[in-house]
Design goal:
By secondary structure, this protein is α+β, with helices and mostly antiparallel strands. About 45% of the residues lie in helices and about 20% in strands. The strands form three sheets. Strands 6, 7, 8, 9 and 10 form a five-stranded antiparallel sheet that branches. A four-stranded antiparallel sheet has the order 1-2-4-3. The chain is elongated, with a radius of gyration of 32 Å.
Length: about 475
């Protein structure tokens, strides 16, 4: 099966493949057999119609088309292996010559991974934030645990910070009641600031049965973004009573006997979480430097598809959050303008593709493989993150043909571990970072024994909706 490759650009090739009919014969025989099962010709049993009769009654062209379509993927696969090209997308195939009983010629144009040399990863030095656990962080964790075991006690006094109120809200615009902006028996913690601008100021100092009116902008519903008058009525004031942070509390809320042991373990867990973030930062920093050192052409079609996917994802996230891009940028100050924002998204899209190319090439050159244990661990990780059973994840993987996708993810993760391990990573204090996980850390937190994660996830431009903030 002769084949040639024409380099159309650094990232696109045209493969021309000639297939003698002798190599097409198995596909032709199978095509004749399939057609014989489908046609009903008097004098012949179904499935026993001779090829000559099929040519006469159905047409040889029909059989040739089915045989060629079935055989092309195999011949294409052989050609890309022979010429050692790495396709990045589905090929555009065209049959350019058909000489019946002699040969078939077809071409396949496809975007491929361009040729480039990997950088010396041992020469890369990246910096990440130092791991630091403050007393304030520990106190915050401890207070959150105390709140889980706290109680609400109704009080006969005016509302103050941290009180939990039961309130009714009724909004009007130009004196007309807004049914979609009316709600009763809502629970609200004074000072949380998570409902309506001006609500904290309005309820502070109110006792049960008292009301106040304030002006605010609605954040949802048909009148979203409009200034309305809101009447808030407090129906109950409750004081949150938290248990004392002592040994008795430690024994009630944990497996520890003393509050000192509990807080020490909180420090360990916070440090582990910080190390995971540090490892993720190391991954991003090393890949960023590796990509910056390379001049890789990203195929236009691949880049456009990736950019469109990200645009769609961001647009959907904004819609779900009830925001326009203009509002999001005003709230976050992430970019000076919408054009600058989308330009950054485009750069991140291109960098993500380059990162995948780097990881795939490293995996190829170092012959990184994936075994059954790797796949099992990946399934367990997905199950934990998605709160599904491993069996459900495995079933979904098989039913939706995700095996190849998962194998690629695992292979890239292994390559990423090797690359980051080869580089030098220092923290903001100038100390060399050990990215391994302490042996005595807890199993409940994400593991940091290896720097793992998917490049496309890491390089996304996240939109901080309520779910992602």
């Amino acid at each position: 099966m002769p084949s040639t490759v024409e380099q159309l650009s650094p990232s696109r090739v045209k493969i021309t493949i000639e297939v003698p009919f002798s190599e097409l014969k198995p596909s032709l025989d199978k095509a004749y057999a399939e057609v014989a099962k489908q046609v009903n010709i008097p004098g012949f049993r179904r499935g026993k119609v001779p090829p000559a009769v099929i040519d006469q009654r159905v047409g040889r062209g029909v059989v040739l088309q089915e045989a060629i379509n079935a055989a092309l993927p195999e011949f294409y696969g052989q050609a890309i292996q022979e010429h050692k090209v790495t396709p990045l997308a589905q090929p555009e195939v065209e049959v350019t010559k058909l000489e019946d009983r002699e040969l078939v010629e077809f071409t396949a144009e496809v975007d491929v991974r361009p040729e480039f040399d990997l950088p010396d990863f041992s020469a890369i030095t990246a910096e990440v934030d130092a791991v630091e656990v403050t007393d304030e962080q520990v106190t915050e964790q401890l207070d959150a645990l105390r709140q889980r075991f706290g109680s609400l006690n109704p009080v006969e006094r005016a509302a103050a910070d941290d009180d939990v109120l039961t309130i009714n809200l009724a909004a009007t615009k130009d004196g007309e009641a807004l049914a979609d902006a009316t709600a009763d028996d809502l629970q609200y913690k004074v000072g949380s600031g998570g409902m309506l601008d001006g609500l904290d100021e309005a309820v502070t100092g109110l006792s049960a049965g008292e009301s106040a009116t304030f002006t605010s902008e609605l954040v949802g519903g048909p009148n979203k973004g409009e200034q309305v008058d809101v009447e808030v009525t407090v129906t109950k004031v409750s004081e949150q009573e938290l248990p004392e942070a002592d040994d008795d509390f430690a024994q009630m809320a944990s497996e520890f006997d003393t509050i000192e042991e509990l807080t020490e373990q909180m420090k360990v867990r916070l440090a582990d979480m910080a190390r995971v973030e540090q490892a993720n930062g190391a991954r991003d920093a090393v890949l960023e430097q590796a990509i910056a050192a390379l001049d890789i052409e990203v195929p236009a079609g691949i880049r456009e598809n990736e950019l469109n996917a990200r645009r769609q994802q961001i647009t959907q996230q904004l819609a779900q959050a009830g925001l326009t891009l203009e509002q999001y940028l005003a709230d976050t100050e992430e970019a000076e303008s919408e054009d600058a924002f989308w330009a950054d998204v485009e750069k991140r899209s291109s960098d993500a593709i380059k990162a995948q190319m780097v990881l795939d090439k490293y995996a190829d050159e170092h012959e990184i493989g994936v075994d059954q244990n790797d796949l099992t661990q990946h399934i367990l990780q997905i199950a934990q993150q998605s709160q599904q059973s491993p069996d459900e994840v495995a079933k979904h993987m098989v039913e939706h043909d995700h095996v190849t996708e998962y194998m690629t993810e695992i292979r890239r993760s292994k390559a990423l571990v090797a690359i980051v391990t080869a580089a030098t990573v220092k923290d903001s204090n100038g100390d060399i970072v050990d990215l391994t996980r302490p042996a005595d850390s807890q199993d409940d937190e994400p593991e940091a024994e290896e720097v793992t994660g998917e490049v496309t996830e890491a390089d996304d431009t996240p939109v901080e909706t309520d779910e992602q903030a």
